[in-house]
Known about the structure:
Two copies of one chain form a homodimer.
Chain A: E1 38-49, E2 53-57, E3 62-67, H1 73-85, E4 91-100, E5 114-125, H2 141-146, H3 148-151, H4 155-178, E6 182-183, E7 201-203, E8 212-214, H5 220-228, E9 233-241, E10 253-262, H6 266-280, E11 296-298, H7 299-306, E12 319-321, E13 339-345, H8 355-366, E14 373-377, H9 390-397, E15 404-410, H10 412-429, E16 440-444, E17 449-452, E18 455-458, E19 489-494, E20 497-504, H11 509-518, H12 527-533, E21 540-546, H13 547-555, H14 589-594, E22 597-599
Parallel strand pairs in A: 3-5, 6-9, 11-16
Antiparallel strand pairs in A: 1-2, 1-4, 2-3, 4-5, 7-8, 9-10, 10-21, 12-13, 13-15, 14-15, 16-19, 17-18, 19-20, 20-21
Amino acid sequence: xxxxxNVSLGCRxxxxxxxYTVRTHTCNDLGxxxxxxxxxxxxxxxxxxxxxxxxxxxxxxxVQAKISExxxxxxxxxxxxxxxxxxxxxxxxxxxxxxDRGENRNEAxxxxxxxxxxxxxxxxxxxxxxxxxxxxxxxxxxxxxxYRYIALRSDKLQxxxxxxxxxxxxVRKFLIEKNGFVDVETPTLFRRTPxxxxxxxxxxxxxxxxxxxxxxxxxxxxKQLLMVGGxxxxxxxxxxxxxxxxxxxxxxEFTQVDVEMSFTTQExxxxxxxxxxxxxxPESLNHIKPKSPFPRISYSEALELYGTDKPDMRIPWKIEExxxxxxxxxxxxxxxxxxxxxxxxxxxxxxxxxxxxxNEWKRLIRMNENGRNFSICNxxxxxxxxSVENQKIIDEFGLTGEDVLVVCWGEPDxxxxxxxxLRNYVAEICGLRSKNTVTAHWVVDFPLFSFEDxxxxxxxxxxxxxxxxxxxxxxxxxxxxxxxIKGQHYDLVINGVEMGGGSIRIENSNxxxxxxxxxKEPEYEMSHLLRALSHGAPPHGGFALGLDRFVxxxxxxxxxxxxxxxxxxxxxxxxxxxxxxxxxxxLSKKQLERxxxxxxxxxxxx
Amino acid sequence: xxxxxNVSLGCRxxxxxxxYTVRTHTCNDLGxxxxxxxxxxxxxxxxxxxxxxxxxxxxxxxVQAKISExxxxxxxxxxxxxxxxxxxxxxxxxxxxxxDRGENRNEAxxxxxxxxxxxxxxxxxxxxxxxxxxxxxxxxxxxxxxYRYIALRSDKLQxxxxxxxxxxxxVRKFLIEKNGFVDVETPTLFRRTPxxxxxxxxxxxxxxxxxxxxxxxxxxxxKQLLMVGGxxxxxxxxxxxxxxxxxxxxxxEFTQVDVEMSFTTQExxxxxxxxxxxxxxPESLNHIKPKSPFPRISYSEALELYGTDKPDMRIPWKIEExxxxxxxxxxxxxxxxxxxxxxxxxxxxxxxxxxxxxNEWKRLIRMNENGRNFSICNxxxxxxxxSVENQKIIDEFGLTGEDVLVVCWGEPDxxxxxxxxLRNYVAEICGLRSKNTVTAHWVVDFPLFSFEDxxxxxxxxxxxxxxxxxxxxxxxxxxxxxxxIKGQHYDLVINGVEMGGGSIRIENSNxxxxxxxxxKEPEYEMSHLLRALSHGAPPHGGFALGLDRFVxxxxxxxxxxxxxxxxxxxxxxxxxxxxxxxxxxxLSKKQLERxxxxxxxxxxxx
Lengths: 606, 606
């Protein structure tokens, strides 16, 4: 099969993709309107047939050529021999005439109505005869990363990188042209921030030997300082860095669409971001474009109904309280604060929900401290619980043979967490989570502080402002009140994945100092920000969208679990390695001396 | 004087700078069309008068307000007391009605036709009574960097950052919308490159302890790999890093407009960049927009005529050979390869060219190994050279009283270098270098290799291709031929400063390996690129524009020596410090352990 590129053609009519080059057309440009034209095209040799026919591929598409029969016998034989000898993936130039393919046209190919009758064939750069892989063929992950520059020629990666470029450009046009935002670059060689455990460090050269810069996790402080500096509508497509080892599908460097605005409100920022996402949505994905306004749901409601603050709204099921005493028999005498709750998975059937699947879920759920006992069943199953008649359950919850009931019992938080997990698991196997739809919503009213390892911490970060009516509670004698304070924070959740978050910030220097004290964060590490807030800081707030994750979702037609490495030109492995160039490397003596550093011996595991 | 913002209004008609905020207008929006409107504006308190009048300033402009006389006596007195108490630079909100100022209008203020009669005054955030500086007032460089967030409110920095945002957006529109380029992000955590002395390093965490990433000086390798990957029209506004200590007006991190294209030629890239610069030129600077095509001048011609490969074309004077024996008397017997050359500085007069200025020039020129003897004079001066009659010189070079003659003698390269310097010095003091014009041109035909410290090095970098007719010389037995090879490299010079450069790259793996061998660069450090070139690499070339320097030139109305820190939101000092946040810092024990590093003691000089 001839590959057909599926690149978004948003502003294609304006484009001149061959300007400033020596080709007359790309491999995707030619059609019946070009018949009899003399053309010059260049690309990669991707197919050969009978030493005479061949297909040329470039970033835009493919076109068939054949050695012209109008050539002298001698030339014809010479070109055939040449073609026979050219390895696949070599870069060649074809000069020839566009000819109608008539009845032989290839409908699967955009340029399939025509072919080029080549008078001339030039090898611009010969490829190795033993290519380690071909662009659109299966190869191991390792091979595809080692030869990333070949994988990049594949339809999938060509489309993903172009989709990313298009989305980002649309974001810029919306923010700059429609809304007067200013694109400002902020430094990446910064100071460490409180905590800072997950910040990469950059040892400084003389005259600052013995000290180091940190690569920031986000431009948070800088964007707030820009607000204090009167740049009241800032954005940046910002490179950020986070050292999280090999946690999940994350890269040590990543990109966020970083926005901040003065004189605004929580609703103002949320509306801006909704409008931005919709305005920037790639044209080729209009069929999955969400509508605004995105629904708002509070943090507590999310936990109550979905057992998570990142509910996947493609799944229609909610957690319900069991008001009867049907499952009371599961309560032990020692169980105080006990509840039983259910999710009725309407239409979930029980396909694929084998005993071993369920056991696997049990194992996964028990790995978490919040994991609680649960049971899953559908009406056709007999003797589900020995002590309860099946029919009683069927009647009570109105079950049909198509439905599945998930019951969980124990202490409420654990029950909801467990049901939240099961809601996803069940939906996963009945295909609800692979639906090509995009559900976007906001989670709001998060607690400002949380308890973690016995310590009071910011639920998000120490710069988030409490909601107006909770501000007094910051200063309450009763420290328990702190945990009840709600922050002006908002998370954007798409299809069960957090795509970004933001908040209205604390603009008052005294309140910011007080919050740092509550958190036992050293004040001196933030003295520049505290000073700035006392020198004329406007009220302000903002948002950061995880660009890699968001574009991965777009490129996966709404699947937010599409790997981020598929939308990054040169990604690193989970272990932080660039297989292609073999980074990181050891350092030379000269480098170690320049930065006054000593490194431990290489990991023996390497 | 009330400051008037001079922000470029390129696409202003489309803008809604108050959308998503709680203000109705910016401080620059109001005029006679708003009379009798109820408005809400927010900004910084910048002037007060008679406890009743005040001026509010924001990013866009200023507006005068006064406490409304229509208020009840009680309210009026209360608001007056409030206003009296608000420190300058506090952020306030004014609710009121727009009123015609009639005969009292202020022509120097864009909103000077009206004023706001305030019914309500709200202090959104009180500033400290003892502000360390005010935005538009003089302060030391150190103070302005320490309180950068206050300096950012100044007209100058507001304009510079907005100009930068506008230029960059125009570049993107030209490349993406008009020419189908793809904006691709490349990694900044990379491997060290050969040499690599000026690359910052980032120690890697487990499982790569003992190794380090390098922060790249440019995306050079990645953009070439993208070409191999079939992204045939790439660009990126790329953050780059260079550890050059405190050399000149440079920052450890800087930004370049990075472009690469396949299937193109040297002329193709130069034309693209010319068109890009002209298309992206900010509207407010149309009066200094250069015209295309930019003149091309060869490297050797530049040295011959201007004594530098970065000639300032605002200066009309050229280096001329003295064909007579007028200055032969200066030649010593031992001087072989001796020349005398002159620059006739027509119209330079001799104002300010005092003995001490000339002595200072002598000192500067003698600091360089190329510095040669010279003499400067104008016709009115008597007995310039004792052995030559003034009138003879005046006649020979056709001098008038307005002209200045610069003579230099000795070995040709040194003479030209010296005259190149003097050409700039003389032009500087007669104001030619502060002319608000922009002269842009290309320097081409650079030598591919140069001698530096007795070693053969790349004049630019090892990836530059030789010109077609010089390719064979790469393999010549006679190594002297190497120095005669010309590279397909081109530098863009504006008003005497190199703004960027680019080249057609070597796409052939064997030739690239051969060049690395010539340069004695270790092949294994570049094995990924050599492999890539053998797996189907198209012919390609590109360009990188130094964005900070270019925007500095724009913001200085064509003056390319405008400090780059004036177009960077948060610049570092020459010593690599961020005075505001006090970066770099020492590291915590936890950080040192995480990265397995030991740092030397802090510089005692700190």
